[in-house]
Design brief:
6 helices; 153 residues; globular; two-stranded antiparallel ribbon; mainly alpha
């Protein structure tokens, strides 16, 4: 075995060790934020923002997606911020999950690019399904305290 071949082989092993496994310490697959009863209710009836969506966004999204952490980017602090459009399109398009960056990026990023969230647990398939259904139902988001997310750091 020559030096060039050995060097190439070593490079392959180093690069392979840099990938993030689907259930790594820095990006674990995640546990459902909602109880099984709440998941069942959301999947079989209308999705309720306060009961089903807000807990997921608070636990897994708003810590980074807020005006202070990412000025000028997607903020999920309240309805007004979340319904804005950015350079790449609308964050949430009520009734159209495929055109909503919130839904599209969660699915794409978690399954293909494996970048988001930078730290913390990824959304579970149940949580993704609930967010998608909520957007498809028109993304109803209450005003006031009920519709304001707490940023937990």
């Amino acid at each position: 075995m020559n030096y060039r071949h050995l060097s190439s082989l070593l490079c392959v092993f180093v690069l392979a060790s840099c990938t993030t496994p689907p259930d790594s310490e820095t990006k674990p697959l995640g546990a459902n934020v909602l109880s099984q009863a709440a998941i069942h209710t959301a999947k079989t009836g209308p999705v309720d923002f306060v009961a089903h969506v807000k807990p997921v966004l608070e636990a897994k999204c708003v810590m980074c997606h807020n005006r202070k952490a990412l000025p000028g980017h997607m903020s999920l602090e309240n309805r007004k911020e979340a319904m804005r459009s950015g350079a790449l399109g609308a964050y949430i398009v009520p009734g159209d999950p495929e055109k909503s960056l919130l839904v599209a990026n969660v699915k794409t990023v978690h399954q293909k690019v494996s970048v988001m969230p930078a730290v913390g647990e990824r959304l579970t398939p149940d949580e993704y399904a609930i967010l998608t259904k909520w957007v498809k139902e028109g993304a109803p988001w209450p005003a006031g305290a009920a519709g304001t997310l707490k940023i937990v750091r």
